[in-house]
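Hey all, quick one. A colleague (J.T.) asked me to put the 5-amino-5-deoxy-1-O-phosphono-D-mannitol job into the tracker so the inputs and the structure tokens live in one place instead of scattered across chat threads. No bug as far as I know, just bookkeeping. Sequence used:
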Amino acid sequence: MCGIVGAVAQRNVVPILLEGLQRLEYRGYDSAGLVVVHDGKLERVRSTGRVVDLTEKSATTQGHIGIAHTRWATHGVPSERNAHPHISKNHIAVVHNGIIENYEELRSRLTTAGYEFTSDTDTEVIAHLIHSHYAHGTSLLAATQASLTELVGAYAIGVIAADNPDQLICARRGSPLLLGVGIDEHFIASDVSALLPVTRKVVYLEEGDVVELGRLAYQIFDATGARVERAVQTSEMSNESVQLGEYTHYMQKEIHEQPQALADTLESVCNSQSLVPGIFGAEAAATFADINSILILACGTSHHAGLVAKFWLEEIAGITCNVEIASEYRYRTSVPNPKSLVVVISQSGETADTQAALNHAKSLGHGHTLAICNVAESALVRLCKLRMLTRAGPEIGVASTKAFTTQLAALFLLTLVLAKQRGRLTAEQEQQHLHELRHLPSAVQKVLELEPQIAMLAVKFANKHNALFLGRGLHYPIALEGALKLKEISYIHAEAYPAGELKHGPLALVDKDMPVISVAPNDALLEKLKSNLQEVRARGGELYVFADANTHIHAADGIHIMQMPEHAGYLSPILHTIPLQLLAYYVALQKGTDVDKPRNLAKSVTVE
Ligand code: M6R
């Protein structure tokens, strides 16, 4: 969480910092701030609320070097005094993304040494620590390096000093940070989207790197302090992909991008005549031949994708699959199986719990690792031996949409490749699946046509406080995902249940005020589901059913039917996700919430 941007240039950097922050706001948005060096002094502007407020407040601020930050509060409430940058003795300014675990101990030591703390953050200790070293005459680089050795925890930081108008220091360990290389100017940012207006040339920093940037040059030092070269890469992210265009919200844009995102993710496979393990990496064939089970680790929506995959992997590929919430797995005592393929799923590839769970699995002896991820240069991708990149493009809305459906597509490919390798897929079945995958983007496009109907339906939810989501089998995780979307952006309390579980407790909640939303695919469990829906109706519950063709569930008093265009077999969970995303979106519009930046949340959860 939190976004960092910094610049050292010959021009005024304030507009660059503000534009960068605007683009990073999805990472955290409870307060924002920037600092520049001007006439040998630090000039800081901070604001609670959004970058737009900071922009107003910084109208007259100017400087050729500066650092800026948009915050997701961890230590200390969202307030101006806790907003970054933090400053020590009017001399050293720091922005930070991450958590310093030993900050209390450092804070008491620095207080004894005469430093006055003006915030409740963990970050402020970094500013004072660097100042304490810098005051003894060491360079800003050496003072930062010395301070970093005293920190326990995760950080990406940017540092400037009042008396050093051409030097910006940055460092990363556990939190993302990259350099931007311009013409006689250099930048830092938490992700490349922040820098697209000024450069596409970027250097992805490694764990433990510390960098000294000037206007004309930069030097990178690795975790041991040795000078190193890192490749300059050209980002392919397009500027349009991070702009809203004709849409009202990023979430709406991203829902509509799903046909293209799926086509892009499936491109290499759909253009070929057969499935090969190589789509997961050069070593995939050998790895897949050596495994006897799958362990999926992920959080939130990505975890739901894993739950769908379990059904596919066990039924189609005949391989045992366990799916664990990463934040739980990392702390429990599990029984490791070195023959298991550990699959981490993540949109951002930065999620702290997923990274920690992967490292935990490795420490237990799990050597076979696969990342399914939307960010090619992310930590998770780099930590895994195998990878499959979802090609959803940048996802800015906090609620995950296109990342989820493309994760499902990637997991279905994994299922098919394993099924083939294990002799469970005939050539005819393989061709049939490939045919269905090629058809998937247009099938999703067709479902999107339900948007006007769903927008009308959403009106009925405006005054609701609770909702139940039902699904069965392969679609139970889709009910979970629908409930997560609704609560995340509309703040309506929503729960999901496998429909057969209703009578074991939750049925007690059902009355005329409880909307019950059901996913009703035309699959083997349809008749069972229909009985469950009758149980709801008999208790006065209002039903909203997303039903495939030929399910013969008819609209009636208290039963609202949304007709899905077709039944998509194993790919049905992907199609059934779309209307639930749209429902959450339109209910949020009814409630007037901040759809793309729901309260208390941030896009990338880079803290535990
Ligand atoms: O980047 P990741 O996929 O690892 O993120 C995991 C969750 O934080 C994320 O899916 C979250 O649940 C979404 N905001 C839900 O819409």
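Adding what we noticed when we looked at it: The chain is about 35% helix and 25% strand. The two ends are 10 Å apart (CA to CA).
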